[in-house]
Structure formats: structure tokens, C-alpha cells
Sequence to fold (255 residues):
Amino acid sequence: MAAQKINEAHEHIAKAEKCLKTSLTKWKPDFDSAASEYAKAAVCFKNAKQYEQAKDAYLKEAEYHTENKTLFHAAKAIEQAGMMMKEQKKMPEAIQYIEKACMMYMENGTPDTAAMALDRAGKLIEPLNIEKAVDLYQKAAGVFENEDRLRQAVELLGKASRLLVRLKRLDDAAVALQKEKNMYKEIENFPMCFKVRHDRHKLVTSRTVMVCNGSPPTFLQRNTAVSIKKKKSVYIYIYIRGVKRLKILIDLITT
Fold:
């Protein structure tokens, strides 16, 4: 079965190359037909589990769609090339192809498709690289926000903010949650607005007592009180929003 599909793929490639030839009666290459044949070849290679050859065929399809100035179809082909890299467990390369496809979607004037592709890319890379997933979700949210599709944007912001908490990037998480809350308020989804506000409050207050040797994180300095134990002294820092920091030192003298 696999051998048959591979033979079919090579037949389609031969047809594609024929479409690209010129003659006295055919002055221009037929890029559209060539792209179509390479697309068929890619599917055959994919069905035969020859993912590297399928990727190359999708890239050829994209090349000839670009020559034919059909950027949307070129971007689709490049995105499929990325999925072939995913099948080979080459996730960084897969994400690169998908991001390239997203740029072409934007250039083609289809930002919604770009945002959805970025979301899919985020889901693919999240188990391996949370930092990159955050970046992709935030980019997708930004595209949706620019298109006034706030419901889709806020969902992606929520994904990003929760991953930021997992990464312990608490300052960034607090900012992301605040933006998420404001967006829910803008679309008048008040139950979710209150939920996100509660989540942000928990983020800020959950670490009010920290054992460490240095200064508290920035977000705690702005929002809450922190008790830091150091040797036989407890430094209690009191922070009030918009007010200069006060420090009280209590010496614990124990026997």
C-alpha cells in the first residue's frame, strides 16, 4: 500500500514538472496546475508516512501558489509542511513553518486564519516549551483584538496568563490577568470579569508570606504585605498602593 502511494506521488510530481515547461505554443509555466499536482503528491507521501518527502512536496506547492499570487493557498501548504515536521517530532521546525504561514495569512488579509493557526501552534508546543506557547497565545490574542474579536482574544489571554503563573513569572501574570479582566468587562461578561479579578487577587495574596534572603518580588511590593524571615529577625514590609514603603523591624530574641 505504501509503495503504491509513493509511486502515485512520483507520478504527480512528474505531471507538475511537465506543467512548468514552456514551449513555442506555451509561453508561461502553469503554476496553478503544478501546485495542484504537488498537493496531490504531498497527500500520497503523507498517506505512505513519508513525512519528509510530504513536507518537501507541500513546500513546492507553496512555492508555485506564491508564483501564482495565491498567498492564502501558499500559507495553507506551508502550514501543512509544519504538520509534517510535527509528525517527525521536530516541533521547533514545525512551529517555524506555522509562524511563517501566519505571516502570509496576515499579508493575504486573513488575520482570523492567522490567529487560529497561532493558537494551534501554541497547543502543539505547550507540552515542550511553555515560554513559546505563551508567546504564541499572546500573538494570537493580539491579532483577534485588532480585529475586534474580543471573545476569542480573551480566551487566548486566559491561556497565556495561566501559563505565566506556572512559569512563576508572577509580574507578567498579574499584568495579563488585569488585561483579561478589562476585556471581559468590555464585552460585558461580568461573571468572568469577577472570576478573573478573584484569580488575580489570589495570585497577589497567595505569597504574602515568603521565606527568602532578598527583597520581595515587584508585584508584591506594589500590592501587599510580605513577611520575610531572616536568621533571628523578621522583616515585615508593609506596602500600600501609591504610598512610600514602610518597614518595621521586629527583633525576635529567643533563648
Notes: Confidence is low (pLDDT under 50) at residues 200-217, 219-255. Strands lie at 226-230, 233-240, 243-251. The chain has two domains: 2-206, 207-255. The longest strand covers residues 243-251.
